[in-house]
Write a structure and sequence with these properties.
Elements (H helix, E strand, L loop, with lengths): L24 E2 L7 E2 L4 H17 L7 H14 L12 E5 L6 E4 L3 E5 H6 L3 H16 L2 H5 L5 H5 L1 H11 L5 H6 L14 H18 L5 H20 L8 H4 L3 H12 L9 H8 L3 E2 L7 E3 L2 E4 L4 E4 L5 E4 L4 E5 L2 E9 L4 H10 L14 E6 L2 E12 L2 E13 L2 E10 L7 H6 L1 E2 L2 H5 L4 E7 L6 H5 L8 H9 L12 E6 L1
Parallel strand pairs: 3-5
Antiparallel strand pairs: 1-2, 4-5, 6-18, 7-8, 8-9, 9-17, 10-11, 11-12, 12-16, 13-14, 14-15, 15-16, 18-19
Helix pairs in contact: 2-4, 4-9, 4-10, 9-12, 10-12, 10-18
């Protein structure tokens, strides 16, 4: 959650890759494929969307790590036939703590630092970026929704909140109206056949660039294991959708990708070079955007903290924090006060009513104080297809025209589960803010006597240290370590 946030939803997933009309490679009978290069129109549309995507996904990382990702991305992108000039592609390493990658027409390719950190060699990075470029080259988004426009890219965050946080449950219908800008993006999940085609295109690009084509299968396996681990840590019912939600079911695609790549080793992986180049990459939340640590969220820049209810988990995004559990869902975000807390709350409720829908309004707005912060809240009961739902907006006046609020959903009569969270919001001292440190990747060299257990014990987590370490490094519980081998650990 950025310091300069506004009322809005967050990306715990991603913009649907290749939303705009994309050029393609088309076969002409038995002749060589005809290549349609990136057009001036593509470049114009991509250039308009690019700054919006940067803003919504944490901004661009700069420096040597980003330069390395850019180099690899351009090398693989030119294999697609969209352009033979590396200068026609803009490859960005995003400062985002979610596993994600995507591409849009005009030569724009993106990957998050979190997904990059999950990879174990350069060929895997090239494979993921090649997969995304493949979606654009094959015009998959155009096939799924020909009318998609730039405003839908910008509106992705709202649609993701209603889809990922609310989900297909008792809150689903209400969620269709929540933050409705760009809601059609929910239909843009790629089909299985499109995913397989993008995998195959990515593998083809790997072969052309001289990489080991089996890297597509190994990175898909890492993604599947990471998703399974997160589901285990949060409870299977609370699995957070990530890259695999816009790119469904990586586990089922691993064997297909390996079959297409072939089982014989051929091509480079550049494992050690890759690990050396990503050493020191921020892992998980960036303190500049706030940090989730268990049930606590702390923002050292904005100087506040709050605690999620017991049994709930949080996911931090660029503009807001989502809170999810079996008995309700919530979001924390902020905006300019501009007037009274009453009018602020009314405005937030107004965003929950889509075009042509019955306006949602609280029955009353009550004033209170939370840890010395002026606050107010309102509750509205909405009839859902599965029964009545309570919607709560609890807002706080932080002074200087800045407000923050929770928007929470629970089945009728169940919103009290969020009361401890509403009452936990507090301002923090400079000393407390200064104690918040980022987690970073530390690439270490295995020494004689090192074991899976001894290295994983150094992971900067209080739980599942060994499981996190194994997934991060693509290892199994019976893997053998070799002195001189490079591995990743996460430290403060």
């Amino acid at each position: 959650m950025r310091a300069a946030s506004a009322i809005g939803a967050i990306g715990i997933l991603a913009a649907a890759p290749g939303l705009l009309h994309a050029p393609a490679v088309e076969a002409q009978s038995s002749k060589a494929p005809r290549v349609y290069a990136i057009t001036a129109s593509d470049k114009t549309e991509g250039a308009k969307a690019h700054p919006e995507l940067l803003a919504e996904f944490g901004g661009a990382i700069t420096g040597t790590q980003a330069s390395y990702v850019e180099q690899v991305g351009k090398k693989i992108a030119v294999q697609s036939g969209l352009s033979n000039a590396t200068g026609d592609f803009t490859v960005t390493l995003l400062n985002s703590p979610v596993n994600n990658a995507f591409a849009i027409p005009g030569g724009y390719v993106y990957v998050t630092r979190q997904l990059t950190a999950l990879m174990n060699n350069e060929a895997e990075l090239a494979g993921v970026l090649g997969h995304e470029v493949g979606h654009v080259a094959a015009r998959h988004s155009a096939q799924r929704q020909k009318a998609a426009q730039r405003n839908q890219i910008i509106g992705v965050l709202g649609s993701i909140l209603s889809g990922a946080v609310l989900g297909d449950n008792a809150f689903g219908r209400l969620g269709q109206n929540l933050f409705s800008q760009g809601s059609q993006l929910l239909t843009l999940k790629f089909s299985r056949s499109q995913e397989l085609q993008a995998d195959q295109l990515g593998i083809t690009y790997l072969k052309r660039a001289g990489y080991d084509p089996r890297a597509m299968a190994t990175v898909l396996e890492s993604l599947a294991r990471q998703n399974a681990l997160e589901a285990q840590l949060r409870g299977s019912a609370n699995q957070t959708p990530e890259w695999a939600s816009t790119h469904p079911d990586p586990a089922s695609r691993v064997r297909t990708a390996m079959t297409y790549a072939g089982s014989t080793a051929a091509g480079i992986t550049n494992r050690d070079a890759f690990l050396t180049r990503i050493d020191g990459l921020v892992y998980g939340d960036d303190p500049k955007q706030g940090v989730v640590d268990g049930r606590r969220f702390t923002h050292p820049v904005l100087r506040f903290a709050f605690d999620a209810p017991d049994g709930f988990f949080m996911v931090n995004g660029t503009s807001a924090v989502s809170i999810s559990g079996s008995s309700g869902k919530a979001q924390f975000s902020g905006g300019k006060l501009g007037g009274s807390l009453d009018s602020y709350i009314t405005t937030v409720f107004g965003t929950l009513s889509g075009s042509g829908q019955t306006r949602i309004a609280p029955s009353s707005i009550e004033r209170t104080s939370v840890n010395g912060i002026p606050a107010a809240y309102g509750v509205a009961r909405v009839q859902n297809s599965s029964g009545p739902v309570d919607v709560v907006v609890f807002a706080y006046d932080f002074g200087n025209g800045q407000a923050y609020h929770f928007m929470a959903l629970a089945q009728a009569g169940g919103a009290e589960v969020f009361t401890p969270m509403f009452r936990s919001l507090r301002k923090i001292s400079a000393a407390d803010a200064g104690s918040v440190k980022p987690r970073v990747l530390d690439v270490v060299t295995v020494k004689s006597g090192d074991t899976l257990q001894s290295l994983s014990a150094r992971m900067a987590y209080s739980d599942a240290k060994l499981q996190r370490f194994l997934v991060l490094n693509g290892l199994q519980s019976n893997s053998t370590l070799t002195p001189g081998q490079k591995l990743k650990i996460v430290t403060y």
